[in-house]
Every structure is written in structure tokens, then in C-alpha cells.
Amino acid sequence: MISSRPVSVLVLLAALTVGVVLGVFIVPGLLGDLGARAGAWESPLRTPPAALVVAALQSADVNKCYACHGEIREFHARGKHAAVNCANCHEALDRHVQDPSVRPVTRTEHAVCASCHKDQYDSFVAANLQSRAKQEKATFKSRSPLFDKLSMPHGFTKEHNEPRSHVFMLADHLTVDRAYGGRFQFKDWTRVGDAKGAERNAWELLTDKEPASGEQKIFLPQTAVAANPVCLSCKSQDHILNWKYMGDPDPRAKWSRVSKVVEVARDLRHPINCYFCHDPHSAEPRVVRDALIEAVADRGEGTYPYDKDKSRDITLTKVTFRGFRAIGLLNKPDSNLMCAQCHVEYNCNPGFDPKTGAAIGMADRRTNYFPWANVFDLKQRYEQLGFKDFKHAVTGAALTKIQHPEVETFWGSAHERKGVECKHCHMPKVQNAAGKTFTWHGQRSARYMKKDTCVKCHASWTEEEAEYQIDAVQNYIRGKITKAEFWLAQLIDKYEEARKTGVPEDVLKQARDFHDTAHIYWEWWTAENSDGFHNPAQARESLARSISASQDAIKVLDTALAAARAKK
Prior knowledge:
This protein is mainly α. The chain has a domain at about 15-115: Helix Hairpins (Orthogonal Bundle). The protein has helices at about 5-30, 35-40, 50-55, 60-70, 70-80, 95-100, 110-115, 120-125, 145-150, 170-175, 195-200, 200-205, 260-265, 290-300, 310-315, 335-340, 380-385, 405-410, 415, 420-425, 455, 465-500, 505-525, 535-565, and strands at about 90, 105, 185, 205-210, 285, 315-320, 325-330, 350, 360, 390, 400, 430, 435-440. The longest helix is centred in the C-terminal third of the chain and has 39 residues, at about 465-500. The protein is built from 24 helices and 13 strands. Helix 1 (about 5-30) crosses helix 3 and helix 23 packs antiparallel against helix 24 (about 535-565).
């Protein structure tokens, strides 16, 4: 029989142990940005002051929350997070219960999830030091040496970088020369590689050189102001509770498509948040990017528009909350769709109607739009929508500025037909130091994780052979991209010659139509970030079509030039 004293001691030790655990792991999830705001502790996983541990033990009465948030009860009760208390992710709940008009503070930082999902968090903030940081695409040593000529005068000609991992996505967006006129800069260049700081709070790394101004204008030479609030929907979801579905203006929404983008940017802290893909109440797979939900659910395109059987098997259900915002619940995990929230071609900016020439501003929903189509159908889709991004500075052709259509490229590829998803190559299952398996959240190229990606399926390959296969595909497609760029440049030069010579407008218009086609079939592959690896057969065909369209335009112009010169 154990005496009462040892029991008391054991209870005390247990309590102390629980307190330590709560202090190290749970408190950050309960107390929000308090530490970051007050400078109480640097790391979200560092032990906070002892006084805060007591607060960690004060849980919310979930039944009081359910009384008003019945739609949340269904999610929370059925999922893996059923035992997670509301106070883990929401602050100031007592004030909210007393006065529902006082909104609670919802935690948006990764530290909340890191309290339980440490391996996933650690992999997310681990910078890939093997990849080249801040690599410009549009240089003579990179993917698209003639990009500036082919895309002038679009803002992307100011800076067009290769992507880094997600942890840097907000900081890199705020500092890119095409976006904010140069006003946001790194405090010093040692912070460019500070991944943990970028995740914790982008403003730890950055400074606003024009803090007195909220206007979007150029402050430094060779910069542009191409950013707008929709751009930020893929860089962070800090604004999720302050953004109505599709970014429509609403008195209940702090931000909308027509908000001043500088003010929206200043309000953000964290890169892509965990709840982008994981419902925080149920832990079920989901999407929150409104333009994807609109494409799949509202327009009825389906989850896989070129594969009706797969679209029926993998579904997305739109759930609307109080007519304000919406989420898309997946019936099963599908990383292709989760990644499709951002890794697609989309409109996120003003443009113009190619038929009427009328400007399309951010008040128009067409500025928040996913075509949800492959490269061969894209031109027709934008013609149906009545939207073009810009006119080329030399030819005047109405052109599309393509973003990063990785998911649409992957549709129908050999890998996709075999059941491979984005996660298998970019977020594979790995083991931690203790031998526990978890999903890597660092979003690296398969090139840097060949043992856990390529070789797992291609078991007969060595890692060196896998890399050779990757190089073989990418080198081939890079060559085709370069050839397509060459012929597009020839087309532009020939057009300028024809215009100056007095070639008739009907011929010039025909050349501009060819230019539009050649541009789409080329730029899709310089915007898509796999150098064709996601679908090499499609890349080869598309780039061949680009070259042919450019050459056809040159032939038309040459014929007209010969006729014009013969008359002189």
C-alpha cells in the first residue's frame, strides 16, 4: 500500500510534468501572438514565462461555443481534433462570450499547429540550402533569356524569380521588384535566408521604406506596382476571416479586391498557413482558395475536368458560412487539389476586354478567376471570358500573362495516370530521428529527395540514375523553350519591320493573332516550374505549336513585305 505522502509527491510531479509540457507545446497554441507581440520569447516552441502556464490550463466551454457556432460543431465533433479545445486556437473567448460583437482573436501562425505537429513544422521551416535562392528566370543564364523582350511592358519583366520553398513565399512576394514599387525591402541582406524568421513574422525580416504612404506607387527605379489584394490570397491566409468569398466588397469584410494592397500587405505576417489544406476543426482535407472553389463548384467544372471518372471519385463540396465565406471540403485527401489552390494558371489582376478594349478593374470578378483548363484550351477559355492581361509593347497583340500552371500540366501525364500526386514527389513520407514516419512539409523538388521519391517507385534506379532521368527530360524541354523564344523574338522583329514598311493592317492583325497563340504555347512552360517534367509529351507538343505559329506569322509578314516593296 502506498502512503499518502508519496502519492502527493507523485501527483505534484505529474502536475509539474504536465505544466512543463503545456508550457513548451500548448501555451503557444493558447496565447496567440502574445509572445511575439510582447517579445516574451523568440521561438514559438520555447518555454514561456511560468505565469502563462496557469492560463494554459483555462479551457473554453465548448458547449457555449457550439450554442452559436452549430456549423462548427459538426466539423469539430467528428474529426481528429475533437479533443482539441477552442482556446488552443482562439484568444479572448471570455470577452466574446460576454459580448458576441467582440470578435475573438483567431490564431493564424504555424506555432499553433506546431504544438502537436512538430516534425511537420520543422520540415516546413527548413530552408533547402541545395537550391539556388533568388534565382532570376529572365537572364541569359537561366530558363528564359528573352523573357523581357517577349513580355514587355508587363511588370514581370522587372523581376521574375524561381520559386523558393513556401516558408519564404510572403517575404519574397513583398520584396519582389514587380510588386510594390520597391517600398518593402529586407532590413539587411543577411535576412534573405532566414527561414524561421520568415515563418514567424515576415516583418521581422522586412522594413517599409515608405511607412507614411499607403499608396501603391513606384519608389525605386526599375520596379513596378503589379500587386493587388488577390495576389496575396496565395501568399498567406492571415486574412481568411476578413475576406469575403471571391474578395467581393462587403461591410463585414476588412479587405476586398478593391482594397489598397499596401494596407492589406502590412496586415499580413505569415506565409501559407496550415489551414489552407487542413480544416482546423476537423483536420479533414480542404481548400480555401475561393477561385478554385468557384471553378470546381460554382461553374461545375469538377475536380478533374478532363477525367470525368476521377472527378466523380474525388469530389469537392462547397460549404458557405453565413453567406460570407466558403470552404471546399474534399471527400478524400488529394494533394493535387490542395496544391491547385495556387499552382495553377489564374487571373489575379486588372486587364481588358479584347473585343471592346474596355478596361477591367479589380471590382470585376474576372480579376479573381481560375480558367481550370489545359494549355491547348486556354486561349479559347479566355476568349469566352473576355479577358486579356496586356498588349505587347511592339506588336500590340493582346496577350495572356500566365502564372504557374503545374497542376493543369500534370493532368493526363504518365505519373498522374499511375496515381501519383504532388505529395509523392514534393512532400514524401519520411522518418524522423526516432523512426516515426511523417509527411515532409518543406515542398522540395524531387531532385533533392530522390531516395524518398523517385527511387521508391523506380526501385531499379540508383539516385544517380534518377537524377539523369530528370536532367534528360528537363534539358530537352529547356532547349525547346529557348527555340520557341527565338522564333517569338524573330516574329516581333519582323512585325516591327513590316509596320514601318507600311504593311496593311489586316496582315498585321493576322500576325498579332499568331503572336497570341505562339505566346500562350511558349509562356505556359516558362511559367510552369518543372521545365516540362510534369508532362514532357504535352510540353513538347505545345512548344512545337508555338514555334510553328511564330514561323507562320513570319511567312505572312514576309509575303506582305515583298509585296509592299515591289510597289515602291
